[in-house]
Amino acid sequence: MKKTILVATLLIVMCSANTFAQEQIKIQEKYTSHNKGKFFVSWGGNRDVYSKSTVNFRGSNYNFTIADMVSHDKPKGWHIDYINPLQMTIPQTNLRIGYFINDHYSIAVGVDHMKYVMTTDQIANITGHIDYPLPFSGLYNNTPTVMSEAFLMYEHTDGLNYVNTEFSRHDDISSIFKIENTDKIQVNLTEGVGFGLLYPKTNTTLLGKQRHDDFHISGFGASLKAGLNITLLKHFYIQGELKSGYINMPDIRTTQSTEDRASQHFLFFEKIIAFGGVFKI
What we know:
Elements: H1 2-28, E1 39-50, E2 53-59, E3 62-69, E4 71-72, E5 93-100, E6 105-118, E7 123-130, E8 138-146, E9 152-172, E10 185-198, E11 202-206, E12 219-232, E13 236-253, E14 261-279
Antiparallel strand pairs: 1-5, 1-14, 2-3, 2-14, 3-7, 4-6, 5-6, 6-9, 7-8, 9-10, 9-11, 10-12, 12-13, 13-14
């Protein structure tokens, strides 16, 4: 009987010790040690560079192609509009909401709100025909032409909206910087691939016609990115990213007439700085 009591007592003590040890491990384990099940959201801004693009404009009385169109972005700089709910579409912005499916991989959806502006008064070669109005009517055969505002104003400024899904990998590289307590500060390397739709609001003044200037699904895009993430106090982070991709828009609305369309494709390079939070629900 005494032996039975002793064995039972020992078993209870061992179980209690094991439970206590497991609880201690949980207490000591850092919040940043695992990512699985965490959500994150970020908001930031971007600067963009675009490759030259061949753009086709077509309608009932014209069909012409502009070769090697030069364009640029439309930066706002550091401005209160980035956090003003009534003015948030004025700057070039990035919104992303994601979820860690395991410790190293996440899936996210977001919008890269870029802006694309044709450089005015550049000289570009045009091929095709314009039936009217004067003085632009005629046949063009790789003809150098000044892209004046009277002839064409062409912008995706509200904006060049790349609505995309990204699949990314995340790696803690804090040890490189000899950081031991990652719950205070953590450095992560991230790389990802994305794909999605282009939903621009195109502002075009073409041959004096009334502009369309409304949101329209115009094409698709794909992208690759790499970035550095610095997480502070477990839940807040700043992330810098470099992103490059391809955009193809075969169906761009240009005027009020449904016959008027444009198409183009180009490469883009995007620099992003975003601020965000990471948490569990």
